[in-house]
Amino acid sequence: MKDVYISKAVIKRLPRYHRFLGELAKEGVERISSNDLAEMMNVTASQIRQDLNHFGGFGQQGYGYNVRYLHEEIGNLLGLNKEHKMVIIGAGNLARAITNYYGFKEIGFLIVALFDVNEELIGSEIKGIPVRPLSELSDFAKKEEIDLAILTVPKDAANAAAEEVVTAGIHYIWNFAPTELIVDRKKVYVENVHLVDSLLELTFEMTTRPIKESK
Ligand code: NAD
After folding, report:
1. pLDDT, mean of residues 83-88
2. Is the CB of 194 under 6 A from ligand 1?
3. Were 90 and a residue from 117, 124, 153, 176 both cysteine, which residue would form a disulfide, CB within 3.0 to 4.6 Å?
4. What is the CATH topology of the domain spanning 8-77?
5. Residues 118-144, buried b or exposed e (16+ Cβ, 10 A)?
């Protein structure tokens, strides 16, 4: 699995497969064909088969997929079979919103500390989680075995903060700052999040394929 190239497009679809299969499992559905899953998910059956073939297929010709098994296996691929400890760098508005969202903990992503450079914030808590000085990040990350850093600092501070993260030995950054981070890609993997991109995908539809109400 380690050396197999998986395109970003396939990886992006895995959480959606996982979510749908989770719903089916909850409803007690035991098996599903790629055709039925495709119809539910509004994709083609061949896309599902191609996507899952990257990971060995998971299905038996003619029998469809075992829902629970596939849900679990995709969950394993997404790292959902264990807990992940995360820290947030930059304890401002966005950090507050992320910390208050219960959904991360539900799937095993635990925010264990926030870090900031603002003396007024250091020592305070967000949802019971302490805001610590950035200077403590390295020691804390090593002691607590932190897997992932969420970067929610202003754009101008992002590269310096990312450097602190790398120095702390954290190899994965979920970056919300609107800038490309200049980091050693051999040491750290960066996943950028841009809410505006998602909004613009919507307005592309709005502009190019407007919904016309039939009268
Ligand atoms: P904010 O000003 O409320 O919070 C930023 C925090 O970072 C502050 O507490 C500040 O003291 C701290 N900080 C500054 N330099 C730091 C450093 N070197 N190390 C640690 N902490 C530092 O801002 P916000 O509204 O929470 O936004 C945070 C970032 O997220 C901004 O870059 C913003 O543009 C971005 N953002 C991105 C999206 C997205 O979709 N990607 C959405 C909203 C905001």
Report:
1. 98
2. yes
3. 153
4. Arc Repressor Mutant, subunit A (1.10.10)
5. eeebbeeebeebebbebeebeebbeee
